[in-house]
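Researcher: Please predict.
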Amino acid sequence: MITHIVFFNVKTDLDKSNIVAELKAKLLALNKSVPSLKHLEFGVDFSQSELAYDCALYSTFNTKADLDAYQVHPEHVKVKEYIGQVCANRVVVDYEL
């Protein structure tokens, strides 16, 4: 199993709550539109720690090839374009169990 985790920070000049809600809706919709995606969750940070990111994506795939297919799927590409517009930064971790 492949796990793909992404942490996001929304640009400071944007309305964080609206952006996070929109990002959540767009990412969760991928569960229905990307066949190679096994599971996707989205969470919003509540800690307010200065070290915390605003939100996180947790997703799983059966194989690395499935993750690769997800990365180029047209619906995911649309979401990545949105993320590029509204997020100041993000970090990613991919690992295999």
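Model: The radius of gyration is 13 Å.
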